[in-house]
Amino acid sequence: MHFKQKLAYIVLGGLFSASGFLFATIIGDVRAQDEHKLVRDEIVCHRLNIVDSRGKTRVRLLVDEYGGVVAVHDKHGKGQAQLGISEYGGVISAHNEDGHSQAQLAIDKHGGVMSIFNNGNGNAVESGVSDRGEGIIKTMDKLGYVTASSPYVK
Fold first, then answer.
1. How many Å is the maximal CA-CA distance in the chain?
2. What is the DSSP annotation of 45-97?
3. CB 146 within 8 A of CB 139
């Protein structure tokens, strides 16, 4: 390469550098996102965790080979409510401060069931459909033994 060609390339490179510097000075800071919120029509994923300002998961949406779940967590990350579905049916549950289910509304192959649990996580009251298709209400003691039912079930 001759000296004049080298000099022309050096000058051309200098002009590109100077124009880039000038352009950046005029435009100012560039941000990946504007102050306006970015709105998407669709997000495709298998799991979505929504966290609070401290990074704790507060809402979890997930889907796997068994079904899907929407779970809401308290500020400590413990599950407080859940909506789920699987091949066996669906469930809505509310949880105590330890994350144990205390009340459920669910469906299974027989029909619907409503359960209220004691603090030991055992059924205390259950109302639903028996395996014979009839309505049933049961109460249980803290060990899970049936104390009363209508109709009577052992």
1. 105
2. -SEEEEE-TTS-EEEEEEEETTEEEEEEE-TTS-EEEEEEEETTEEEEEEE-T
3. yes
pTM score = 0.61
Return the sign of the alpha-carbon dihedral for residues 144, 145, 147, 153. positive
| pLDDT of amino acid 7 | 67
pLDDT of 109 reads 79
Burial 117-152 (b: 16+ CB within 10 A, else e): bbeeeebbebebbeeeeeebebebeeeeeeeeeeee
- Joined tokens for residue 134: 């009839």
Please indicate, yes or no, if residue 98 is contained in any of the structural domains.
yes
- Asked if residue 17 is part of any domain, the answer here is no
Residue 66 confidence (pLDDT): 84
Domain holding 144, by residue range, is 47-150
Residue 137 domain flag: yes
Chain centroid to CA 19: 48
- Other C-beta atoms lying within 10 Å of the C-beta of residue 107: 16
